């Protein structure tokens, strides 16, 4: 019995194993069959700048030329140490039409013999001749920024080694392409700079698809088939993870190797930059027996775009405002060769600046950049490459438009096509977009009044009156506020944006541009080169370093807009707010309020609590409240931080609660118990010398200015101040008043006649400076001077200081970035600390924040010295700017538009500061905040700046 049971058990095992093998073979066969119906891809180069493959290479001229060696691909050959560097503006005699020869051996599987094999080039600069195993793969391709492919099925040796050879001419044989690409305002590179790969497809296959997925779920798809391919189409809608959402019922018609398929998806989420919902449309090609021949998946987003003349641009029924920037495909150490990781980094920075749009200036980007715009959410204007006139010739232009639209047609992020840049348009190409674009997106001409749009570039602020002959056009400048060096971008943006936001037919605009294009010069020991002022236009530095305008834009373009206000003793807790999202209710956003203290020279959070935001729909206005709590009296400032529905910070607004005078008093009270010593006063060689504690101060007995400071026998190089800026009067008297606890040195200037002589009324007033030396070594200063009802002069006081002794500074005030009069937003009021640097924004150094400049809302500053302990200055007066040294003038600013005025001296305390212009504009043409006049209500009341120096 036992033996029989064992035999039966073994039979069951054998039976199970037999079934397992049968099912396994069936499953394996099914899987193999399934895999054979997919498109296979094999890279011949690497995938991006960080993942490359070595090819053999020969360069005809320049660095490392006239010899066979090797090169990493994809790459720009200049960045690999070959050839010549050229910027598009270089004169003809500096250009060399160098060429590169590439060779690479590769193998393909035997089982590809029954497939169609194509070689795909995502981008080659500029003319490319391709041979496989010694035979031409097809006609020479012209145009640097466009994907092209060849069917090389008949040229391959299957299961064996193959040879690919590519000749790349840096310049094109087509002169219109040279003008568009090689003479434009950007760096000119050469090489196979985007990936190259093989595609293996079933003989009967889908060539490509063009999809129009509307916000209501309607889907129209053109499915283009290979030659002599028949059958039927089946479609499924999948979510982005690949899970089934819906089997789609199709209405299909076929003609000329193309199916047109219509269907509707139910209960879908639409795509927009705030909620970039994506799906996959799975398309299966079936033969007449219902067997799968080929299957592809295309990522899509459901959205509807309308450009309504005289009204605006609507996406899913909502009229939108572009908060956009122009962006080139560029990285300093690899040129135009980039990566998906870099695309993600750039888009995340744009989103962090609260942008919702990007213009592809001035050529189509890498595919992965558009993929990231789809997935993270940015509106896109896609553009073919032209540069002023003459335009692309029609024959090559038609090919380029076709290549652009066919590659990019299915990206939901793309709202508009741009047929070139700044008068480089060939209008014969305008109707070609509709041939290839199933979505029939509108075509624009950047910097032109064209059809329904006005995309004016670099207009002065008064252009926002929009009272010219094109008031019925949808107005959105595709370039404005040119960001040369530290100018433009954030400077002036508040004035422009508030007008653009409230203009009924404005669709926003695009800043120029995203990043400084400083290239690594392999021919100059690796220096970063911006070609003078041609490529120093970024909001961020070449490696993504954030300049001050980054944070100004972040605040001004915040979708949660908080009306400006200050906090005084009668604060009622009310903040006025506006929802400037297009699709998001504030019910899905959050805000926290922090009460903070700056005692002991650092930020301490006293209390943190949520703020109840009103559930405002887009474009609605309302209020929220921050109620005072018992801890309010201990706080120095209030910080409000808003978060979007994904938990990402929108912006942090800061409000000082206590005045500079009160905070300074609190801090100085802590030092009042310092060691005190008897004051010593002497007059020597025209000087007044006062010794106090460990300090000795030397003042001029003719002017009252501080000439020298010595502490512990070391000279602190602060001197020659205060000089009252703009005061040309002489000092009338200098008095010394000695008391037991302090000594005063008071300088009074000659009086001014304030009234015109014809009035016969004489009003005498005098500026004055008053020093007070305390027993503990503290040094008070009060400067009193007359203001004017309106003036262009910088009002305040200044000192000399040896810049070579400066190591850094720590301060309480707005920071960490410097400000200009027309760019004060984007800072935060708290304690900051910056090390000394000599960065020229966008030109050299690239260390941010810049150390030198004007800093707003000063409460105190501690200057760090290389040779001594440094010293600290407490400011008792409100609304004072600190001027810290003088930035060096950038070399490429011949008209001084982005080199604001700095008064004499090195360290100043002032009430007004200059604005900054742009490459094409003076500061005062960028709006009211850029005006060089400042207004005071009452010129009879003197201005005062009160400081305490602690050495």
UniProtKB/TrEMBL annotation:
Keywords: Calcium, Glycosidase, Hydrolase. SUPFAM superfamilies: (Trans)glycosidases, beta-Galactosidase/glucuronidase domain, Galactose mutarotase-like, Galactose-binding domain-like. GO terms for molecular function: beta-galactosidase activity; carbohydrate binding. It comes from the Bacteria. Residues 69-202 form the Glycosyl hydrolases family 2 sugar binding domain. The keyword Hydrolase applies. Coiled coil: none annotated. Belongs to the glycosyl hydrolase 2 family. GO terms for biological process: lactose catabolic process. The lineage of its organism: Bacteria, Pseudomonadati, Bacteroidota, Cytophagia, Cytophagales. The keyword Hydrolase applies. Its EC number is 3.2.1.23. It holds the Pfam family Glyco_hydro_2. It catalyses: Hydrolysis of terminal non-reducing beta-D-galactose residues in beta-D-galactosides. Residues 205-303 form the Glycoside hydrolase family 2 immunoglobulin-like beta-sandwich domain. Its cofactor is Ca(2+). Residues 310-430 form the Glycoside hydrolase family 2 catalytic domain. This is beta-galactosidase. Monomer. GO terms for cellular component: beta-galactosidase complex. It comes from Flammeovirga aprica JL-4.
């Amino acid at each position: 019995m036992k033996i029989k049971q064992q035999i039966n058990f073994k039979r069951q095992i054998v039976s199970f194993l037999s079934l397992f093998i049968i099912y396994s073979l069936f499953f394996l066969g099914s899987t193999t069959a399934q895999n054979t119906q997919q498109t296979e891809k094999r890279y011949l180069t690497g995938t991006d700048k960080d993942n490359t493959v070595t090819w053999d290479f020969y360069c005809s001229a320049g660095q490392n030329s006239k010899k066979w060696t090797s090169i990493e691909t994809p790459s720009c050959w200049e960045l690999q140490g070959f050839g010549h560097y050229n910027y598009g503006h270089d004169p003809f005699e500096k250009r060399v039409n160098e060429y590169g020869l590439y060779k690479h051996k590769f193998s393909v599987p035997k089982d590809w013999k029954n497939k169609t094999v194509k070689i795909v080039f995502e981008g080659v600069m500029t003319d490319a001749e391709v041979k496989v195993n010694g035979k031409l793969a097809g006609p020479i391709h012209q145009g640097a920024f466009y994907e092209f492919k060849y069917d090389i099925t008949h040229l391959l040796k299957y299961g064996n080694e193959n040879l690919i050879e590519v000749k790349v001419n840096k310049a094109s044989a087509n002169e219109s392409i040279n003008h568009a690409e090689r003479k434009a305002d950007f760096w000119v590179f050469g090489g196979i700079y985007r990936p190259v790969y093989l595609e293996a497809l079933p003989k009967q296959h889908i060539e490509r698809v063009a999809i129009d997925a509307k916000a209501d779920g309607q889907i129209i798809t053109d499915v283009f088939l290979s030659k002599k391919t028949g059958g039927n189409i089946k479609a499924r809608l999948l979510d982005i993870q690949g899970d089934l959402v819906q089997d789609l019922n199709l209405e299909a018609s076929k003609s000329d190797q193309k199916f047109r398929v219509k269907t509707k998806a139910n209960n879908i989420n639409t795509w927009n930059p705030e909620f970039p919902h994506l799906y996959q449309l799975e398309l299966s090609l079936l033969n007449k027996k219902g067997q799968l021949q080929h299957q592809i998946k295309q990522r899509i987003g459901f959205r509807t775009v309308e450009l309504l003349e005289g009204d605006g641009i609507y996406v899913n029924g909502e009229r939108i405002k572009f908060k956009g920037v122009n962006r080139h495909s560029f990285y300093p150490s690899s040129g135009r060769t980039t990566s998906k990781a870099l695309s993600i980094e750039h888009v995340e920075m744009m989103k962090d600046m609260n942008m919702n749009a990007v213009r592809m200036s001035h050529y189509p980007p890498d595919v992965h950049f558009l993929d990231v715009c789809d997935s993270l959410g940015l509106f896109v204007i896609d553009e073919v490459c032209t540069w002023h006139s003459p335009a692309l010739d029609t024959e090559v232009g038609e090919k380029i438009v076709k290549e652009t639209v066919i590659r990019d047609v299915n990206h939901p992020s793309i709202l508009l096509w741009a047929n070139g840049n700044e008068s480089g348009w060939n209008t014969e190409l305008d109707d070609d977009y509709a041939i290839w674009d199933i979505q029939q997106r509108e075509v624009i001409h950047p910097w032109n009044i064209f059809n329904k749009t006005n995309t004016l570039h670099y207009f002065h602020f008064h252009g926002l009156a929009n009272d010219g002959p094109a008031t019925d056009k949808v107005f959105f400048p595709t370039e404005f506020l040119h960001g040369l060096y530290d100018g433009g971008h954030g400077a002036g943006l508040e004035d422009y944006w508030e007008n653009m936001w409230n203009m009924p037919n404005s669709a926003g605009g695009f800043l120029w541009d995203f990043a400084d294009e400083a290239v690594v010069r392999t021919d100059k020991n690796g220096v970063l080169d911006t070609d003078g002022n041609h490529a120093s236009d970024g909001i961020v530095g070449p490696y993504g370093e954030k300049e001050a305008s980054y944070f100004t834009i972040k605040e001004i373009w915040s979708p949660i807009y908080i009306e400006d206000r200050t906090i005084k003793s009668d604060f009622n807790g009310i903040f006025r707010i506006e929802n400037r999202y297009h699709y998001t209710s504030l019910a899905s956003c959050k805000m926290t309020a922090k009460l903070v203290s700056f005692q002991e020279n650092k930020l301490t959070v006293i209390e943190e609590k949520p703020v109840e935001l009103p559930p405002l729909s887009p474009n609605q206005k309302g209020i929220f409240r921050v109620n005072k709590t018992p801890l309010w009296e201990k706080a120095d400032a209030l910080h409000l931080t808003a978060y979007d529905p994904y938990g990402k910070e929108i912006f942090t607004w800061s409000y000082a609660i206590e005045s500079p005078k009160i905070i300074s008093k609190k801090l100085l009270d802590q030092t009042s118990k310092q060691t005190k010593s008897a004051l010593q006063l002497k007059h020597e060689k025209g000087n007044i010398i006062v010794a106090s504690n460990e300090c000795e101060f030397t003042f001029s007995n003719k002017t009252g200015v501080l000439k020298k400071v010595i502490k512990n026998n070391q000279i602190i190089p602060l001197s020659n101040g205060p000089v009252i800026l703009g005061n040309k009067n002489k000092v009338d008297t200098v008095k010394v008043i000695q008391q037991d606890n302090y000594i005063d040195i008071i300088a009074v200037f000659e009086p001014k006649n304030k009234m015109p002589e014809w009035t016969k009324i004489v009003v005498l007033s005098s500026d004055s400076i008053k020093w007070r030396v305390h027993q503990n070594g503290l040094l008070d200063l009060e400067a009193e001077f007359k203001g004017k009802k309106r003036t262009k002069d910088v009002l305040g006081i200044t000192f000399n200081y040896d810049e070579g002794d400066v190591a850094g500074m720590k301060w309480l005030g707005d920071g960490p970035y410097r400000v200009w009069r027309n760019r004060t937003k984007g800072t935060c009021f708290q304690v900051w600390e910056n090390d000394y640097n000599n960065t020229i924004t966008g030109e050299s150094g690239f260390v941010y924040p810049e150390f030198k400049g004007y800093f707003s809302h000063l409460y105190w500053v501690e200057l760090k010295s290389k040779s001594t302990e440094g010293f600290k200055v407490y400011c008792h007066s409100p609304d004072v700017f600190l001027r810290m040294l003088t930035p060096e003038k950038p070399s490429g600013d011949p008209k001084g538009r982005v080199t604001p005025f700095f008064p004499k001296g090195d360290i100043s305390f002032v009430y007004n500061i200059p604005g900054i212009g742009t490459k094409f504009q003076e500061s005062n043409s960028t709006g009211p905040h850029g005006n060089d006049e400042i207004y005071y209500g009452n010129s009879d009341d003197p201005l005062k700046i009160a400081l305490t120096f602690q050495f």
